[in-house]
Design brief:
The structure is a homodimer.
Chain A (H helix, E strand, L loop, with lengths): L16 H12 L2 E3 L6 E3 L1 H20 L3 E2 L5 E3 H4 L3 H7 L5 E9 L5 E13 L4 H11 L8 E10 L13 E11 L2 H21 L6 E4 L11 E8 L5 E9 L3 H6 L2 E3 L5 E3 L1 E8 L1 H10 L16 E5 L4 H18 L3 E2 L2 E2 L2 E3 L6 H11 L3 E5 L1 H6 L1 E6 L7 E5 L3 H26 L1 E3 L3 H7 L12 E6 L3 H11 L2 E6 L4 E5 L6 E9 L3
Parallel strand pairs in A: 3-7, 15-18, 15-19, 22-23
Antiparallel strand pairs in A: 1-2, 4-6, 5-6, 7-8, 8-14, 9-10, 9-24, 10-11, 11-14, 12-13, 16-17, 19-20, 20-21, 23-26, 24-26, 25-26
Helix pairs in contact in A: 2-6
């Protein structure tokens, strides 16, 4: 196979975007499906990305005063029943534990036994189980705000699953907070949305639109749901984080009462907010290309692949001395607030095989070191965001500084590219025909027009009609520029809002 | 209540050790029971200890070449049935998922629905589910060793539960590795046992005995189980970590085959090893006293409580300036490889209340700052490992260096105290009567004699008889000093081994 003609990933994005996504994951060895229905195995390179997401977000949560804790994985059925909308939203797809043991079935196998008096649900989200603890912890306004976060696994029995984007089990964090007043809770809700937006932009290099969900799309039981929406390279939207203002709904369901400053007892105000391993799906689809994964350096598990090239043992010795000294020189160094990690890859494979291995894994920089480089005191450096064969010669003495500068440049460049792509594909559309045409697939890959920023009258009927006709939904009522008089894109009646429409994951 | 007469924790260790343990947890606000049978809620101070355990161990795993990954929480019943001893060991207490939704029961409640074709077990350990992936990942000796670790939640439907020590759900790490040969797998098994022992001694300040479990006590399905055993202050043993040599048992059950260096296909050799939130129980019981939690500084979530004392606003301003400057001065400083964290506690409580709050939480150092201290340029520092009222005056200019030095001293001192206690309570006993007397409670608190280092003939019958008579078990066949001719402490027949007996958690 000639690498000059073909791409490392087949099919390409243009040929079949959905299949390209699966192949990028496979080529980068990020995750795989398991035999357990809809559950994925997150492999070391994929899990290392999740650990980086965790580390950075966890620091941001701490800086904003939150503390981590851990609550039971099981939710008694009776807890679940306390909030009507909530149970409605999650009851249809949940894992129910009904028994506590397996017994010999008399035929060489096992049968379930020890039926529980009350079934337990494996948490699809933890508002009710955490609420039960909070009801005990909160007595007075002096106990507030209570700012808790949990890193945990979650189970939702999804029917159609897809690695990272939609899986029966996934990993996430869920923030749960309790406040004295509506204002405090709303401030927290929006503050955490800002944290998510900053994280997505500064680390994942994904520009996001902040906004509010419509009634139909909000979290079951929430008063308001806010979200960040990102555009993928197929121009579909991916909801990348949500922050919910829960009002007093869950406080009433769980009995979270407190003595306020007027010495009266009142229900508290709560919020919840979360991001999940779905972010890895967003990361893949926002930046990767037809040669595989592209990672923003700030979230990459490792930054520099050092690839020594030699034909015999004498050359090997020369080359490895330089390779190890470069590895040593980079050890402990940083670009911005990120520690630089390296991979010295001297496996018994051709240099082309090793190069492509790291290209597909999305490592930001590759350094090739051959005997001639040792002699000349310069090495060849390749950037993942440029063409695979595009390499620069860098003097060994300048290498560290070059790497530090280049990683920052790449982070900014990857963001700028994603931002331009998104902005090029958000179109103000006020005409119904144009809107329908915008969402009619233009080619076999079914890549459509992108985000339509269009007037909407606010009615559920119009929202539903557009969803039915085009599989397009209101992604959010964006914070910026949503108040504008116009005519609804669906029914042409007067509208006061301009909202973001899109097909979505 | 006069603090000079009473202790902060009631009952004391002497009065009722088991209840003292619960009260220490409560007073330090580490964890609590939930309404979900046997499941605990780990509160922020307790969870922060777990995060420190994770951070240090994770670094040690990485240094020894391991990578983290994540596998499904559910194990199909059929996987579970593949290894006979394994299923026998776990089937009697497991959470079984049988349904995938809840439906309206027509009476305003919900009933389970959507029965699964095959029940799933919530993982009680992951050998079989991880084995299924490993069977796909391993093809050749070039893929080996495969060194994977997982941080996860685990469910075992334990009957009698106790916070941290034995809970239906707990958190742990489980290492799972695959090797070419018996020798490599055995080397890994013992290497990870050493990692656990170093961690327990260097960070938790708990001396441990390394040894091998007897046939009756080993992990279901393992060929050999190795463990570290620690002595608690009631002289009972607590198994603090295990490392299993699994031979080819699980490779055969999961089909982990590889092409070896002779180009033949063979089953691989595997290991697994784990420690859990149980370590927090060990930490509490090894070091705490009748005033509450005592934490080795290297594992404490925070190290210094700064307690400003003032009577009016003028004094407050003076005192807070110094308090903040001390806080600032300590920011980012380290003792050994540990970052120092501080808590500036200016809550509207008396200084005594704030002092006792931090004593019960086990913070290593407390600094009191009053107006006179501001004037004299010296502050009062109290160490958690000394009497509550024992305080030293330290000049502000020397404070940072004093703190760094003292935290190291305390870490060493806490370990030395635990080591002396343990060594004082390991007794070589060769006589049957003495052995039985050693394990007969001497007082109401039922604190018995400690660890007996005694000859054992190796028979299961003797092991069982001693267990039945005294609730004493063979904790391990220790690596050091176990080969010695003698007469079995139970049957008096010739024995070749001296082993560690104890009552245990």
């Amino acid at each position: 196979m000639s690498k000059q003609k073909k791409t490392a990933i087949e099919p390409t994005r243009e040929e079949n975007y959905a299949e390209w996504y699966q192949q990028v994951i496979k080529a980068a060895d990020l995750a795989e499906n398991s035999d357990v229905r809809g559950c994925m195995v997150i492999k070391p390179w994929g899990y290392a990305i999740w650990e980086n997401i965790q580390r950075v977000l966890d620091g941001m949560f701490r800086e904003t005063g939150h503390r981590n804790a851990y609550f039971p994985i099981f939710i008694p059925k009776s807890y679940f029943e306390k909030e009507a909308e909530h149970v409605e939203g999650f009851a249809k797809e949940c894992a129910v534990v009904t028994h506590s043991k397996l017994e010999d079935d008399g035929q060489g196998g096992l049968k379930v036994a020890g039926e529980l008096t009350e079934p337990y649900i494996v948490r699809p989200t933890s508002e009710t189980i955490i609420g039960a603890s909070f009801a005990k912890w909160v007595n007075s306004y002096r106990d507030l705000p209570l700012l808790i976060n949990q890193w945990a696994n979650i189970v939702r029995w999804e029917m159609r699953t897809r690695l990272f984007l939609r899986t029966a089990e996934f990993l996430w964090q869920e923030g749960h907070t309790v406040h004295e007043s509506r204002e405090d809770a709303m401030e927290e809700t929006l503050k955490m949305l800002d944290v998510y937006a900053s994280f997505a932009q500064d680390y994942l290099a994904i520009p996001v639109i902040k906004g509010e969900k419509t009634e139909g799309e909000k979290f079951p039981g929430a008063v308001n749901t806010y979200c960040i929406e990102a555009m993928m390279q197929d121009k579909k939207a991916l909801q990348s984080g949500t922050s919910h203002f829960l009002g007093q709904n869950f406080a009433k369901a769980s009995g979270i009462k407190f003595q306020n400053r007027q010495s009266e007892f009142d229900y508290a105000w709560t919020t919840s907010w979360g991001v999940s391993t779905r972010l890895i799906g967003a990361l893949i689809m926002a930046h990767s290309d037809d040669n595989g994964l592209v990672l923003p350096p700030k979230i990459a598990p490792s930054h520099v692949a050092i690839i020594p090239i030699y034909r015999d043992e004498t050359e090997r010795e020369q080359v490895m001395v330089l390779a190890r000294s470069i590895e040593q020189d980079l050890k402990g160094s940083q670009f911005e607030d990120i520690r630089i990690y390296t991979e010295l890859d001297d496996r018994d494979l051709t240099s082309s095989e090793r190069n492509w291995y790291w290209i597909k894994k999305g490592i930001p920089l590759r350094i090739e070191i051959g005997p001639r480089d040792v002699a000349s005191g310069a090495v060849m450096v390749a950037r993942r965001d440029l063409e695979p064969r595009d390499k620069s010669s860098v003097a060994v003495g300048d290498l560290k500084e070059y790497i530090i500068r280049t990683l920052s440049e790449m982070q900014a460049g990857i963001y700028a590219r994603a931002l331009k792509f998104r902005d090029d594909n958000i179109v103000k559309i006020d005409d119904n025909k144009e809107f329908y045409s915008f969402y009619t697939p233009k080619n076999a890959a079914e890549i459509h027009g992108g985000f339509a920023f269009s007037p909407w009258c606010g009615s559920v009927d119009c929202e539903e009609k557009i969803k039915e006709d085009l599989k397009v939904t209101v992604r959010c009522i964006p914070f910026e520029g949503q108040n504008e008089d116009g005519k609804c894109i669906c029914c042409a009646k007067p509208s006061k809002l301009r909202v973001i429409f899109a097909k979505s994951y």
